[in-house]
């Protein structure tokens, strides 16, 4: 089964550049490729019994990660700097039954993000269109069960929302913190923050009792008690802590590196979460993405190859006639250091 551990953050550079970061964890090999989808690409959605579903033509080009050879992305950014991901949302995602949806507009869960990235330029445009959007309960052909997702969406202004399918409707939350993990719903995570209001990156003051002073052990005492386990509620608080306390960088390129370092803290190595003991698989962080939403540069690195690779969306012909696909190859041999000649 898929894992339940994805983490999303958004940081702002001092010059106003938003930078998005996300990890993807699965308990099976997702066979991921990076794809550039041009403008005017024709999408055909899915309906029950493999009948043709909704049809639309991409208004905007976008780059993202597709899995299992499907022409839909689970993470990506478009030419206007709109970005987002499909994050696992088990036990709470509730879609519209296919029989109750218009087959000409209904989207499968794995199609929704591509519909957003191909049609809209800003978070405000996405919000305005959601009253006409429907996600239907439909098993994904690559895994043969319905994928439970919710969706963090960010734009080049730094605006962020969370979209969650609840009771067949799409609930939308403004997300000024830019942080999201998995279940429970986003409003629960907001309430949970109240349990951690005393957390601080500043060291705790010494405690004086009966004339004796007790100093904290080392640095970081202001964060004593911040959760370190990989459950979604704990990762949400930890990601919020990093996002709120990270030293703001002057521009996009430096913020990309800062986001990369933060996302490293959410890596799940193979075996740390052992769902195989209960009939599942060993889930792990298969890839991490980072996106500069102003420069339109999308970065990715994999579990077995930690070198950050870049896709500059501006360097592509965005009116091309077909998809451009880069297989997500790995290089197990780290590149050697180059020494100066004696």
From TrEMBL:
Protein name: Choloylglycine hydrolase family protein
Choloylglycine hydrolase/NAAA C-terminal domain span: 6-323
The keyword Membrane is assigned to this record: no
Gene3D superfamilies: Penicillin V Acylase, Chain A (3.60.60.10)
Keywords: Hydrolase
Molecular function via GO: hydrolase activity
Record family assignment: Belongs to the peptidase C59 family.
Pfam family, one: CBAH
UniProt organism field: Bosea rubneri
InterPro entries hit by this protein: CBAH/NAAA_C, Ntn_hydrolases_N, Peptidase_C59
Keyword Methyltransferase appears in the UniProt entry: no
CDD domains in UniProt: Ntn_PVA
């Amino acid at each position: 089964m898929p894992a339940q551990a994805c983490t999303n953050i958004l940081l702002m550079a001092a010059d106003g550049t938003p930078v998005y970061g996300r990890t993807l964890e699965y308990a099976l090999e997702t066979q991921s490729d990076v794809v550039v989808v041009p403008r005017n690409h024709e999408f055909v959605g899915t309906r029950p019994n493999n009948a043709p579903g909704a049809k639309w033509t991409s208004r905007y080009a976008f780059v993202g990660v597709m899995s299992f050879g499907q022409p839909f992305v689970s993470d990506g950014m478009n030419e206007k700097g709109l970005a987002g991901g499909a994050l696992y949302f088990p036990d709470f995602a509730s879609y519209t039954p296919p029989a109750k949806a218009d087959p000409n507009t209904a989207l499968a869960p794995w199609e929704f993000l591509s519909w957003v990235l191909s049609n809209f330029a800003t978070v405000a445009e996405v919000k305005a269109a959601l009253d006409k959007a429907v996600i239907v309960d439909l098993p994904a052909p690559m895994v043969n069960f319905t994928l439970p997702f919710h969706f963090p969406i960010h734009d080049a202004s730094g605006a962020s929302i969370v979209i969650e399918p609840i009771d067949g409707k799409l609930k939308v939350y403004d997300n000024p913190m830019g942080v999201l993990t998995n279940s429970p719903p986003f409003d629960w995570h907001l309430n949970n923050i109240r349990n951690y209001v005393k957390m601080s990156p500043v060291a705790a003051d010494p405690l004086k009792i009966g004339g004796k002073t007790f100093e904290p052990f080392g640095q970081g005492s202001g964060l004593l008690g911040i959760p370190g386990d990989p459950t979604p509620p704990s990762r949400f608080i930890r990601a919020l802590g990093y996002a709120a306390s990270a030293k703001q960088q002057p521009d996009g390129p430096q913020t990309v590196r800062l986001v990369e370092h933060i996302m490293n803290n959410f890596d799940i190595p193979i075996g740390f979460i052992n769902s195989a003991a209960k009939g599942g698989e060993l889930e792990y962080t298969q890839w991490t993405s980072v996106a500069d939403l102003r420069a339109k540069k999308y970065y990715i690195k994999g579990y077995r190859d930690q070198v950050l690779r870049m896709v500059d969306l501006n360097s592509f012909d965005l009116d091309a006639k077909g998809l451009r696909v880069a297989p997500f190859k790995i290089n197990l041999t780290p590149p050697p250091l180059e020494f100066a000649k004696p």
